[in-house]
Structures are given as structure tokens and as C-alpha cells.
Amino acid sequence: MIDQTHQSTTMQAITMKRAGSADRLTLSEVPTPVPDPGDLLVRIHAATVTRGDVVMRKMPKLVARLFGERPRTIPGYEYAGVVESLGSRAEGYTVGDRVFGTTSGLRQGSYAEYIAVPANGMVVSIPEGVGFGEAAPVPVGAMAAFDFLCLGGAGERSRVLINGASGSVGTFAVQIAKHLGSHVTGVAGSSNVELVAALGADDVIDYTKDDPVNSGRIFDVIFDAVGKTSEKQMNHLLAEGGRFVTTKARRRETRKSLLAVRDLLASGAITPVVDRTYALAEVTEAHRHVEQGHKRGNILIRIDG
């Protein structure tokens, strides 16, 4: 049974009818989604703008479908909020629970006041003591970092190089690799060297002064967290049996990974770095900032006023 007594039939959301520039992102009044029997209706308090959001914004619908993506009128990939109501067969949650997750495979994105999500899908509870602004940036960056580091075999005493250590994926990767017991070398620009060191990196290479490709160091895992290098370029830096992993490779999201990064967040092993915070009506400006390619960590969108 869905209780919609106090719920408005319309909501504010960012809509985009055609692919293109950030100017096509429009604040609109649209119908509030009605959850299916197995869904949760979530009142969103925080979302993010990721590099992937910018890529999808520019991608024509036909191309998006070829890549297995579902084009959306309302964009946005990460969210954190409160369960407002439940479908008749939704299990595991109650009204008022705080949750976060991704919109992978859904008809609607997270740049909105409400979203309907499957209760058994890519959604988990927010750990006690963690705010919406801390939870919202975790799913995309932390899951990517966790999955690729595990794929690379990062662990106790392994030597890990993280290229792009000051971005969303990179800042999480530094923290997760340290949590796994690795010796971490981060690659970042001059303005972000101190940030990467503060996150726990044992060494930081300033790429504006030293080329990591010619560093002469040897690593067990090289993780390109920004997709700007290749295994061919970095192969000579790999130890025997070492692995190169990159965010350019496609990966499948799993609830197991989402639960794993939730536990890391709960334990304090990871803390998101937030570069800037925008209101829902300022999503266009947020996209422009991300598009410049120099964000530190994550870009947050507040939707709770």
C-alpha cells in the first residue's frame, strides 16, 4: 500500500530533451514518480555531477543505446535521501530510512526531488552518523576504485600507482589502497599534491614537474583513475606479474560492491572529498565546472534546500 497523503503530485527536476551543451539542462516541474510494487520512493537530499554525467549529457540517444545505456530526460547517477513511501511488495526498508545508491538501469536520474528505485536494486542504507552529502558521492567513485583495485590485486605491501589521484575515483582509490595495506604513490598536479598526501598517499608525483612514465619506479598495480594512459605506456613500470587497470574498461555494478564501500564509509576508511556544492537550480554551472577537467574529488548537488 502506497501512502501518498503528504506527497505532491509534481516535483522539481532538471530535464534535458536532447544531447548537447550544459545550457540544455533546464529546471522543470514534472510529475512525481509513482513507485511500482517492489519500489521505494526516495526523497532525494543530495546528488552529484560526475564525469560520466557530462559524457552522457553529450551523447546522442542512439549512441547511448549502442553502449547499453538508457537515455533519460532527467539525468543524474548518484543520490542520497530518505524513503518517503514503499510499494506493496517492497521489503527491507521502512518509511524514514536514509538510503543512497545509483540510478543504473532506471528510467529516471537523480537530478530531482524524488526517485523510485527497486528495493532489491542498487540502493543500501546510509551508515549511522554519515550525512547525505557524505553518502551521495560514494557509489560511483568508491565502487569504481574498489572494483579496479581488487581486479589489479592491490593488497598488503603491494606497490600501487594511482594516476589521477585527486579526482573522484582517485581520491577514493588512495584511501582504499591504504586501507588494503598497500604502499601508495599518487599522481596529481601541483595544486593537489598536499590533498593527495593528506589522504594517505606515501608518495606523490607532481606531473607538472616529473613525468611518472619516466620515474623509473616499479609497481605491482598501476591504476589509471582518469583513463588518460595505456598499458603500453606504463608496462615498463610494472613488476613481474603486475597489473594495469583503467577506468576506460567497462565494469558491471553489483550490490556486493555497493555494500562493501558502504562498510568502508561506516568504518571511516573512506571520506569523500567535495570540491564544490551547488543547488539543484545550479546544475548547469556544476556541469560546466566538471567539464573543465580540474575538479578535486566530487561535485555535490543539494536538493534539500
The whole-number mean of residue pLDDT values reads 93
Number of strands: 14
In total, the number of domains comes to: 2
Percentage beta strand: 25-35%
CATH third-tier fold name of the largest domain: Quinone Oxidoreductase, Chain A, domain 1
Which structural class is indicated by helix and strand composition? alpha/beta
CATH architectural designation of the largest domain = Alpha-Beta Complex
* Approximate shape: globular
CATH class of the largest domain: Alpha Beta
Helix content: 25-40%
The residue ranges in which pLDDT falls below 50 over 5 or more consecutive positions are 1-5
Order of helices and strands: EEEHHEEEEHHEHEHEEHEHEHE
**CATH-level-4 superfamily name of the largest domain:** Medium-chain alcohol dehydrogenases, catalytic domain
